[in-house]
Design goal:
The chain is mainly alpha-helical. Helices cover 66% and strands 3% of the residues. The structure holds nickel (II) ion.
């Protein structure tokens, strides 16, 4: 590929990221309750709501800068204090629909702006007092990656609500239910063709779900049920499955590719229902007492349930 077409492809990727961001944020926000929106679970970091309001503030500023750069000769760009903005009352409210609506309209206008640029417009620039000369090409590169960085930040913020071990089986189950519901809410919006389409060239939603089912099955049959893990994964006796996670995942991916969508969806619900039932019958003291390695066995239940859903639902936002 020539350097020029590589650059065009990169620009298209950045434009696509900007175009789809408002929908990703709206889908995510629909799964987050008021407590989760406004609690800064990560000490010293913004709440989910502050992240969302910040994206609206930041992109409004950037859109205006883009227009100034296109219509004036190297205009001076006005910096602003984003932390102070995020601390204002309007950035703390749980009413995030206002910022989501702003972003929806704003990104539509912004896409019209970008799509109408002539090739030599991309090198037009403004002067930022702290960063120096900033071209439109640079602004697209920065803001094309900005949303993804905050989506990651939001996921880490939500994950931080689980930093301590669940105190009771009921709390474990509540966490499992919360993240499972988030995952299912995101899946429920996708039609069957989207469920089977690769996301950004990676796994389809169907493959993400099949993968979660594989490890829920491990939780159910090995961690709780005591079945030998090598039998479960059809490995040689004595081999350690946790040392072969990539091989196991790849084998399951190949198997799941061949399965009809309904079978994968049905299996996911069936295995998950069995996991839930099993969690209700745990002899709790055994699970929270530190094992030989110092870690309580409940960690295995967590890693193969709600923590694992959290790692994967994030990818579904881009489906
Ligand atoms: Ni995984």
């Amino acid at each position: 590929m020539s350097a020029q077409s590589e650059q065009l492809l990169l620009r298209q990727t950045q434009l696509n990221a900007l175009a789809r961001l408002p929908r990703q944020l709206a889908r995510l926000a629909a799964t987050v309750d008021e407590h989760e929106l406004t609690t800064p679970f990560l000490a010293g970091e913004w709440s989910v709501a502050q992240n969302l309001h910040h994206l609206a503030d930041s992109h409004m500023n950037s859109f205006l800068r883009c227009k100034l750069i296109l219509t004036e000769e190297e205009p001076t760009l006005k910096p602003y204090n984003q932390d102070r903005w995020a601390a204002l009352a309007d950035s703390q409210t749980a009413a995030v629909h206002s910022s989501l609506a702003l972003l929806h309209g704003l990104h539509t206008r912004w896409m019209d702006f970008w799509n109408a640029l002539e090739e030599n417009d991309w090198q037009r620039a403004g002067l930022h007092p702290e960063i120096g000369r900033v071209t439109l090409a640079t602004l697209l590169r920065i803001y094309g990656a900005h949303g993804a960085a905050h989506l990651l930040q939001i996921r880490q913020t939500l994950a931080a609500q689980y930093h301590t071990l669940p105190a009771t089986p009921a709390e474990l189950l509540a966490r499992v239910d919360r993240e499972w519901t988030r995952l299912q809410t995101l899946l429920a919006e996708l039609d069957s063709s989207t469920l089977e389409s690769p996301i950004d060239g990676g796994w389809s939603p169907k493959l993400h779900l099949a993968h979660l089912t594989l490890w829920e099955n491990y939780l159910l049959r090995h961690l709780v049920g005591g079945e030998a893990a090598h039998l479960l994964f059809q490995l040689d006796p004595g081999s350690d499955p946790l040392a072969q996670i990539d091989t196991i995942n790849a084998a399951d991916e190949a198997r799941s590719q061949q399965l009809p969508l309904d079978v994968v969806l049905e299996e996911a619900q069936r295995v998950h229902a069995a996991v839930r039932a099993a969690l209700l019958t745990l002899e709790w003291p055994e699970w929270v007492r530190p094992g030989a390695d110092g870690a309580p066995p409940v960690n295995g239940l967590i890693a193969n349930s709600y923590e694992h859903y959290l790692e994967h639902w994030h990818s579904l936002l881009a489906a």
